[in-house]
Design goal:
Blueprint lengths: L1 H12 L26 H12 L7 H9 L5 H10 L6 H10 L10 H15 L15 H8 L18 H8 L5 H14 L1 H12 L3 H5 L4 H14 L15 H35 L9 E5 L5 H11 L2 E5 L8 E4 L6 E3 L9 E7 L4 H26 L1 H24 L19 E7 L11 H15 L7 E8 L22 H12 L1 H11 L8 E8 L4 E5 L8 H23 L4 H10 L15 E4 L14 E4 L10 H8 L1 H17 L1 H4 L7 E4 L3 E4 L11 H4 L13 E6 L2 H10 L1 H8 L3 E7 L5 E5 L5 E3 L2 H8 L2
Parallel strand pairs: 1-2, 1-7, 3-5, 7-8, 10-11, 10-14, 14-15
Antiparallel strand pairs: 3-4, 5-6, 8-9, 12-13, 15-16, 16-17
Helix pairs in contact: 1-9, 3-5, 4-13, 6-12, 7-12, 8-12, 13-28, 14-20, 15-16, 17-19, 20-21
């Protein structure tokens, strides 16, 4: 019974921290996800008690936004009055800027250092050449065997340590009440939120390293608390990180809400103007020659606008895993990685097989890859092994120095073999999909499942007709020497590239049996003249690569013409993005420069999520600040498609938005700190300098334009849906978690009701919907 009580207590205490995702799959997620049961204002207060740090934008951030004209002065004055604040803006800006957080001394610094040392050794994922002995027994057991050699702990025999984690905790916690134990666990889990967050990740996400070297929060607490007791570190009277300046926090929160409401009203006004203009436009709609489906990612917005302006092209937005809950098995390494949202279980695995007539080329590709991998392995061994390290580094120094000089002076020119790039196998291999279910693992997916995957995409997108060429476009980013590179890949694919899912959906949609079933069973008619193709959008350079190895003769001309247009589109898009006519060259150099701390901005600036047909936002410059999910309310009578979008993409975009928010308001505590002083540890995380806690969020360079200059505006996500209001109310009644996120203001929900002349209403905490009037919108336009 004691063990179960401990387990329950530790489970509850773990809500104080989020998950720390590994560098090779750095999923952006809400670091305060465990507090979503509380409204945002109370959640940040509660979290601050245990985690510390700043949880609201600073006076400096508000000043930057104020001076850039991002506040609607009427809204601002109204909200200040409601909060009984009657001074001029400058008065409050100076007050917030003058309020400095008191530095908090860490009385447990020695304890943190000792525990971190052991965690680093135990949780290593192949970076260390000599691994910690006995790791297969688990963290507590392996630490217990070796603790006698740690002079800082100060024991003389292993018998001094209890044999199990349960026994150690029972011994340390003797005399403490259940409530005290819970509070104690919360503080000690939150003491190293990066490390404990990664333990939480390994416990819940099925990491292969967890099976090989198991570690639990119970192990962590047993080791930490037993060491604390042995070195006479007080374990229960840790200082509560209480609110230091409650009045300042009230002021900051009022300014934040005024900033957010200003953005909402301005966006409502712009949408209203755009719908009016499009409704009066004399332009006749033509059948598109090409349709492209992009990820809803904010970085897709700009390239979609440039594509649509180029010719008879139509674009859609769809979550970038393209509706396939899958893993991906890498052709070269054989490693399997998740390629769908973390909130989904992977039902399938995508892998690659040689295309007809390409077996010899695939064998050649794999042989060259194996040579390069061996060379890299040998180089790493020589650098890291003690007997050879010094001699190897000295002997190879001239070569590495020359290579470094070349990469520094000419970052746009790769020294590697071009035909051995990461995507070289796309032209010689096709995709296949197998089931992950225990009953039929590695079996081919049945026809009805393939039909369901394709149909789901068409239904959720509200697709009415098909162009001759339809391109599903995944996305990834490319950068050099960037530990956080995966954070720039597709969030919907668990920080993996989306190309594998895009190619797979195209392949399924081209299957004659799938098309036949869609026609007979669901009335979805795909013309024989339509061909589906996969593609990849490089968000660092805005290049788009078409995977056209299997294009039939009938579609070669249109593919060739479209490729030519895409080259011009990429050029114009990156020129706009970087504000420089040499944008393409600059972007390529940035993505290949080993010393570049900011290869691209990622999703910085994200503030909105628009769920509507493309006509609602077409031709609008949304400044890459909005996620765009195609949705046609007229083709979704029961609201099932909208419910799926709200349950999935809306929740994931809230994760992304909150990760950027907290990484901005306190980059040291919730973000990644400066890239300049990062050190990779264990292959899965980074620490600042030579040790300490794992960094849990985005680097400073991903959210700031300088050390103090804000680039990302820390606003909570505003979701705008075109749908009858009654339909959304029904969805919220059926989904307690969604309603909770909205009522607790982790998300703002705005509805553009087509049955009420597309009037936009904002959900209120009391369940009412406030109308954003024409007057309010007019004020916002003149900001």
């Amino acid at each position: 019974m004691i063990n179960q009580n401990l387990n329950d207590c530790i489970e509850e205490a773990s809500s104080t921290i989020g998950k720390t995702w590994p560098l090779y799959g750095f999923v952006t997620s809400n670091p305060l996800s465990g507090y979503e049961g509380l409204d945002f204002e109370n959640a940040i207060k509660e979290a601050k008690k245990y985690i510390g740090g700043s949880v609201l934008p600073t006076g400096s951030m508000f000043r930057q936004a104020w001076e850039r004209g991002e506040f609607d002065k009427n809204i601002f004055q109204e909200m200040l009055t409601e909060a009984d604040l009657f001074q001029q803006p400058e008065y409050y800006l100076k007050e917030m800027e003058s309020t400095k957080a008191m530095p908090l001394s860490n009385s447990a610094h020695k304890l943190d250092r000792i525990v971190t040392k052991w965690l680093c050794a135990f949780m290593d994922e192949g970076m260390a050449e000599w691994e910690m002995p006995g790791r297969s027994k688990g963290f507590f057991a392996s630490w217990r065997k070796l603790a006698v050699y740690d002079q800082e702990i100060g024991i003389s025999a292993i018998a001094e340590i209890p044999e199990t984690a349960d026994e150690a905790l029972t011994q340390v916690l003797a005399g403490y009440s259940k409530a005290e134990q819970l509070d104690l666990f919360k503080y000690h889990i939150a003491a190293l939120p990066g490390w404990t967050g990664y333990i939480k990740y390994r416990m819940t996400e099925g990491s292969p390293w967890q099976y090989k070297c198991p570690v639990t929060l119970k192990d962590y607490l047993a080791v930490r608390l037993w060491i604390a007791k042995n070195i006479n570190q007080e374990i229960i009277t840790l200082p509560a990180l209480a609110e230091q300046h409650p009045e300042s926090s009230k002021l900051q929160f009022t300014w934040l809400k005024a900033w957010e409401r200003s953005w909402q009203n301005q966006m409502a006004a712009r949408l209203n103007i755009n719908l009016t203009n499009l409704g009066t436009s004399p332009k006749a709609e033509k059948d598109p020659a090409v349709q492209m489906v992009f990820c809803i990612d904010t970085r897709s917005e700009l390239i979609r606008r440039h594509i649509e302006s180029k010719g008879e092209y139509e674009t859609f937005g769809y979550a970038g895993f393209f509706g396939i809950a899958t893993d991906y098995k890498d052709l070269t390494s054989g490693l399997i990685r998740k390629s769908c949202p973390p909130i989904l279980s992977s039902a399938y695995t995508i892998h690659e097989t040689p295309l007809p007539g390409k077996i010899t080329k695939v064998a050649h590709y794999e042989r060259k890859k194996s040579y390069l991998q061996f060379a890299d392995f040998l180089s790493t061994r020589m650098k890291n092994m003690l007997p050879s390290a010094f001699g190897y580094v000295e002997g190879a120094g001239l070569f590495y120095g020359g290579a470094l000089l070349w990469r520094t002076l000419f970052p746009g020119f790769s020294m590697g073999s071009k035909d051995m790039g990461a995507d070289a196998h796309e032209g010689i291999c096709g995709t296949e999909i197998n089931s992950n279910s225990s009953e039929k693992v590695n079996e081919r997916v049945q026809l009805e499942e393939k039909v369901a995957i394709v149909r789901s995409a068409f239904v959720l997108l509200g697709w009415k007709s098909f162009a001759p060429l339809v391109v599903f476009t995944g996305h990834s980013s490319h950068s050099a020497n960037n530990p956080f590179g995966s954070s720039l890949d597709c969030g919907a694919c668990a920080a993996s590239p989306g190309r594998h899912n895009a190619r797979m959906l195209a392949r399924l949609a081209n299957l004659p049996k799938v098309r036949n079933s869609l026609s007979k069973e669901f009335g979805i008619e795909i013309p024989e003249t339509t061909f589906f193709m996969g593609a990849e959008h490089n968000t660092a350079t805005d290049d788009i690569v078409l995977f056209d190895a299997e294009v039939p003769e009938s579609h070669r001309l249109i593919t060739k013409l479209f490729k030519s247009d895409l080259a011009e589109i990429s050029q114009s898009a990156i020129t706009e993005r970087l504000g420089n006519k040499n944008g393409a060259k600059i972007a390529r150099e940035k993505s290949e420069n080993w010393a570049e701390t900011r290869p691209e901005w990622g999703l910085a600036g994200n503030a909105g999520f628009i769920i509507a047909p493309r006509k609602v936002t077409r031709e609008m410059d949304l400044e890459s600040r909005c996620f765009l999910n195609s949705y046609n309310w007229e083709m979704d009578d029961q609201g099932h498609s909208l419910e799926i979008i709200m349950q999935g993409p809306m929740v994931v975009t809230q994760w992304i938005n909150n990760h950027y928010y907290f990484s901005t308001v306190d980059n040291d505590r919730f973000g990644g700190g400066s890239k300049i002083t990062h050190n990779v540890t264990g292959r899965f995380g980074v620490v600042q300098g030579n040790g300490g806690d794992l960094k849990t969020g985005l680097p400073l360079q991903s959210v700031n334009s300088s050390d103090s200059g804000m680039f990302h505006q820390p606003l909570r996500l505003s979701v705008i849906i075109q749908s009858p209001l009654s339909r959304i109310e029904e969805i919220l009644l059926r989904n307690k978690h969604l309603k909770q996120l909205i009522e607790h203001e982790w998300i703002y929900l705005m509805v553009m009701d087509p049955l009420s002349d597309n009037q936009i209403r904002l959900y209120q905490k009391n369940g009412d919907w406030s109308l954003i009037t024409n007057e309010k919108m007019a004020d916002s336009v003149t900001m």
